[in-house]
């Protein structure tokens, strides 16, 4: 298993305390896309701190959660090799995971493989460069002349466009009948939360921020404190953001 733009094991507590809240904004749209869930076998791939798996269970599903980081929720397994038989699940979710894998096409094929005929794969990613938070981070990096390290981007032949068409095409390429769209919500969290996630090395921005020498990190923090003002309201971070959500159906009929 492999992950990119994701710092690897050791980030579970920092993720739960910081960026998990941002990702959770997309979870209601994920749940809405796959209801009704009563009695369904659901696999949550890249389960993070487990809050989506808990919501899926709350909606009546039988949920198996996996994550390559043994400190995250579920048991230790990851893309592109899931330890399940073909067609083992009615619904497979991968929320903000395909943007962290080394081979997105192999990962999508594996999500499709473990999905039953007539079952669905639901995936979300962040669209590249267009969200309020990514534009804020770009201004922070620009203020200090910091450019992301080469390790954060996939080689061109493995990468896919981080757009509605890009994620839709990825699932279609795995043989799924797919609809993709943008979903939006208002994020609401503590002012320093996104900085703390990045400083802990979480996600693509974390790889860039945490990789800087201490004095550059301090300057980036000062730039964050300035730039975050544009996204703040009443001493909270409060802004509209969007993710790309795709639902891919495996051809065939689901039994029952
Ligand atoms: C941004 S977090 C999203 C967590 C959760 N799905 C959510 O929506 O809150 C990305 C998660 O993907 C996991 N991950 C990274 N590489 C992975 C891989 N190759 N296969 C499965 N999960 C992976 C990370 O350990 C992390 O828990």
How would you describe the overall organization of this protein?
With about 260 residues, the chain is α/β, with parallel strands linked by helices. It has a domain at about 10-130 and about 155-190 and about 240-250: Vaccinia Virus protein VP39 (Rossmann fold, 3-Layer(aba) Sandwich), CATH 3.40.50.150. It contains ten helices and eight strands. Strands 1, 2, 3, 4, 5, 6, 7 and 8 form an eight-stranded mixed β-sheet that branches. α6 packs across α10. It is globular, with a radius of gyration of 18 Å. The two termini are about 35 Å apart. The model has no long low-confidence stretch (mean pLDDT about 90). It binds S-adenosylmethionine (SAM). S-adenosylmethionine (SAM) binds near residues 3, 23, 78, 79 and 97. GO terms for molecular function: methyltransferase activity. Keywords: Methyltransferase, S-adenosyl-L-methionine, Transferase. InterPro entries: Methyltransf_11 (IPR013216), SAM-dependent_MTases_sf (IPR029063).
